[in-house]
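Example protein
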Amino acid sequence: MLGWALLFFLIAIVAAIFGFGGIAAASAGIARILFFLFLAVFLVTLILGVARRA
């Protein structure tokens, strides 16, 4: 999931360089959503792993 977020971030950068503002904004929004989704899943997994050991 983090890889997909990085891919969309790179697409946003390339689109912004070439002047495609709409595509850049959409790609950056998707990258942000995927990154925060990754963080949420990571934190839940981390908490469940710590709780399982205890």
The chain has one domain: 2-53. The first helix runs from residue 2 to 17.
